[in-house]
Write a structure and sequence with these properties.
This protein is of the alpha+beta class. Helix content is 22%, strand content 29%. It folds into two domains: 121 residues, Rieske Iron-sulfur Protein (3-layer Sandwich), CATH 2.102.10.10; 185 residues, Alpha-Beta Complex (Naphthalene 1,2-dioxygenase Alpha Subunit, Chain A, domain 1), CATH 3.90.380.10. It has five helices and 18 strands. 38% of the residues are buried. GO terms for molecular function: 2 iron, 2 sulfur cluster binding; metal ion binding; monooxygenase activity; oxidoreductase activity, acting on paired donors, with incorporation or reduction of molecular oxygen.
Length: 368
């Protein structure tokens, strides 16, 4: 059993079309992709418990509106929240088990995006056509993940969870929140361990260590570590950026005896763009424990530590939400910011490459 922490502040946003080549031939440049999120990746979408049986849940991810629903077998489906007939939101329609019926004219769309019935005109050309964008979806770690494609021809990569979440010896608690800030600000924040010694100085786990340090980047076959060279095991002293099925950060923060039995406290973090100025933030708080220590840790987390972790996250949120959207354009970086510089270069190169690939795909489609 796991406990999911969820704190959201819904914000109305204008409805958007898919930005990949499904139903439209819209071209995105590198700046737009960088602002709204890289494609051809798996992203966490929502905690599993937020999509109940019989419900249709609208969400906005990567500046596109989607609807999630479970079919009669409990399998989650994710469709563009737009009826292929007159573009009415499917999320305000009727859940029919394995399909959704649009409230406007009753057009029925199944979980794969295929129109299975047009009650107003049976036998019309729309029936049997896959006319609504649908995404590949996986449920794991108490979370719904989806593969966001760049083009209609994009093939989902194999889904693989981060190491800590797939290890049966590791106990974890998921956490979800929405922040009013660009998704890239979250990545910048986590690739900056030094802020722990200042912003989180009075927290329950990051009060130790020096307020000055030297850092290095250590390359790996799946990303890189950004770590202090003169301190380890005291504060937020290192973070690993991992490029796998999905991009995520992995880090550890030492726990004192008051945190109960078990190993160090680990965090897996991910950021999913909602739009260019709002982000869905996912964390899994982890600890390698077994037997009675596992039960003791989980009890202690629920009763004493959970709220303390919220306090730390709130410190991050309050700072990141007051930054201007272009705060990363006018800066004077120094040695502590090597991790921030590296992640920005990686993502910029990705955005340029994806913009070129999308332009090529759109050009080929127009040519045919």
């Amino acid at each position: 059993m796991t406990t999911t922490e969820t704190r959201t502040t819904p914000r109305p946003t204008p409805r958007g079309r898919p930005t990949f080549a499904v139903g439209t031939r819209r071209h995105l440049d590198a700046d737009e992709i960088a602002a709204t999120g890289l494609r051809d990746r798996w992203y966490p979408i929502l905690p599993s418990h937020m999509v109940e049986a019989g419900a249709m849940v609208p969400v906005r991810r990567l500046e596109v509106d989607w609807v999630l629903f479970r079919d009669a077998h409990g399998v989650v489906h994710m469709l563009e929240d737009r009826c292929p007939h007159r573009s009415a939101p499917l999320s305000v329609g009727q859940h029919l088990g394995d399909r959704i019926a649009c409230a406007y004219h009753g057009v029925q769309v199944d979980g794969g995006g295929t129109v299975v019935s047009v009650p107003g005109m049976p036998g019309c050309a729309l029936e049997g056509r896959r006319a609504t964008a649908s995404l590949e979806v996986v449920e794991a770690a108490d979370t719904i993940f989806a593969y966001i494609p760049l083009t209609a021809d994009s093939v989902p990569t194999p889904f693989v969870l981060p190491d800590r979440l797939s290890d049966p010896e590791v106990s974890w608690f998921p956490n979800f929140a929405e922040w009013a800030g660009p998704w890239r600000f979250y990545m910048d924040n986590v690739l900056d361990p030094m802020h722990g010694a200042f912003l989180h100085r009075n927290s329950h786990s990051m009060f130790g260590g020096d307020t000055s340090a030297r850092f290095r980047i250590r390359e790996t076959d799946r990303g890189f570590f950004f770590e202090k060279t003169d301190q380890c095991g005291v504060n937020f002293d290192w973070v690993e950026f991992v490029r796998g099925s999905m991009d995520y950060v992995d880090l550890e923060i030492p726990y004192g005896p008051a945190a109960g039995p078990g190993g160090v406290f680990g965090i897996v973090g991910m950021s999913t763009p909602i739009d260019c100025s709002t982000s869905a933030i996912f964390h899994w708080r982890t600890r390698r424990v077994s037997g009675w220590e596992r039960e003791a840790w989980r009890f202690l987390y629920r009763t004493r530590l959970e709220e303390k972790h919220w306090e730390v996250l709130e410190q991050d949120r309050l700072v990141l939400e007051v930054l201007a959207n272009d705060a990363d354009r006018e800066e004077h970086l120094y040695q502590h910011d090597l991790g921030v510089s590296r992640i920005r270069r990686i993502y910029r190169a990705d955005a340029v490459a994806q913009a070129a690939a999308l332009a090529a795909a759109n050009g080929a489609g127009l040519a045919t």
